[in-house]
């Protein structure tokens, strides 16, 4: 049985209940999420061949510090970096290092800032120099999956409607949806209830209600959906080494749909490709 609770009444830990936030809470999320989106905008000019993911990590830490925020990933369950950088066949949780990016790579950069206790969680794909059409197409399909998932959000429907919209489109484009990872509640907590699956049926999952806040972050593969986690305990890769892509927004459910908290201020939700504004 799913329980919904006023966020102010819930303890600051994941207890399995779904928090319903107030308009004032939405203000806090807007500020944290827009800081994250601004950082992701800045990274568009930084990601290029020869740049190391460690340099990206340092930039994310320093940008946050300059604006009174800390990266949520830093020292989270033993993770020692300020950002996740997932390159090519890395699905998610790639760990920054001193290896330089190469021409033709694609990289997902996942940033979560904690600002005044609120978690602004978002990720985007970045092309490194000139990329192949197959990689560009995967990014386009994945971004469209995100938009379709967001469009499914409205009070009264179930969270499965989000996954169904994503899965239907991805598979029609001959791509696959990763099932090992999902979106999640977010707000005062980094990872909260409910889980937001990126596949499934519209009649599955808890009912979406006004005041809920969660991420939608589909991971889409050119090959099969199967992944494995490397010995570092974090880095997830495609088993068949096919390319993977991911885009992520944090959204808050309104009376008629949802508000996207992490939209790019500069319209660069897809850096390197024509800027798109979700409808």
Q: What are its keywords?
A:
alpha+beta; 3-stranded antiparallel β-sheet; 17 strands; disordered C terminus; 279 residues
Quick overview of this protein structure:
The protein has 279 residues and is α+β, with helices and mostly antiparallel strands. Helix content is 24%, strand content 25%. A divalent metal cation 2 binds at residues 121, 184, 217, 248.
What does the secondary structure layout of this molecule look like, with pairings?
Layout: E1 4-6, E2 18-20, H1 23-43, H2 53-66, E3 70-71, E4 84-87, E5 90-92, E6 106-115, E7 118-127, H3 133-151, H4 160-172, E8 176-177, E9 183-185, E10 192-196, E11 213-216, E12 219-221, E13 227-229, E14 236-238, E15 244-246, E16 249-253, E17 258-260
Parallel strand pairs: 1-2
Antiparallel strand pairs: 3-6, 4-6, 5-14, 6-7, 8-12, 9-10, 11-16, 12-15, 13-14, 16-17
Descriptive report:
The protein has 279 residues and is an alpha+beta fold. Helix content is 24%, strand content 25%. It has four helices and 17 strands. It has helices at residues 23-43, 53-66, 133-151, 160-172, and strands at residues 4-6, 18-20, 70-71, 84-87, 90-92, 106-115, 118-127, 176-177, 183-185, 192-196, 213-216, 219-221, 227-229, 236-238, 244-246, 249-253, 258-260. The strands form six sheets. Strands 3, 4, 6 and 7 form a four-stranded antiparallel sheet that branches. It has a three-stranded antiparallel sheet with strand order 5-14-13, with no helix packed on it. Strands 8-12-15 form a three-stranded antiparallel sheet, covered by helices on one side. Strand 16 and strand 17 (258-260) form a beta hairpin. The longest helix has 21 residues, at 23-43. The chain is globular and about 50 Å long. The two termini are 34 Å apart. One of its GO terms (biological process) is proteolysis. A divalent metal cation 1 binds at residues 110, 121, 248.
């Amino acid at each position: 049985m799913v329980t919904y609770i006023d966020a102010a009444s819930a303890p600051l830990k994941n207890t399995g209940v779904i928090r319903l936030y107030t308009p004032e809470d939405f203000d806090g999320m807007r500020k944290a999420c827009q800081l994250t989106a601004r950082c992701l905008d800045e990274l568009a000019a930084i990601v290029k061949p020869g740049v190391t993911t460690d340099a990206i990590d340092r930039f994310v830490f320093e940008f946050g510090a300059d604006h009174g925020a800390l990266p949520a990933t830093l020292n989270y369950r033993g993770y020692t970096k300020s950002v996740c950088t997932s390159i090519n066949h890395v699905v998610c949780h790639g760990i920054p290092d001193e290896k330089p990016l190469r021409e033709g790579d694609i990289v997902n950069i996942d940033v979560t800032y904690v600002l005044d206790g609120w978690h602004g969680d978002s990720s985007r794909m970045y092309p490194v120099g000139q990329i192949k059409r197959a990689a560009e197409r995967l990014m386009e399909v994945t971004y469209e999956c995100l938009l379709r998932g967001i469009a499914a959000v409205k009070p009264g429907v179930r969270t499965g409607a989000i996954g169904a919209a994503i899965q239907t489109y991805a598979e029609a484009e001959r791509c696959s949806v990763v099932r090992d990872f999902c979106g999640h509640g977010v707000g005062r907590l980094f990872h909260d209830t409910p889980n937001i699956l990126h596949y499934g049926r519209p009649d599955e999952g808890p009912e979406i209600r006004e005041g809920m806040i969660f991420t939608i972050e589909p991971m889409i593969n050119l090959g099969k959906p199967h992944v494995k986690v490397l010995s570092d305990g974090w880095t997830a890769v495609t088993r068949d080494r096919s390319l993977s892509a991911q885009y992520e927004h944090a959204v808050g459910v309104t009376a008629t749909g949802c508000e996207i908290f992490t939209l790019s201020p500069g319209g660069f939700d897809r850096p390197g490709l024509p800027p798109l504004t979700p409808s």
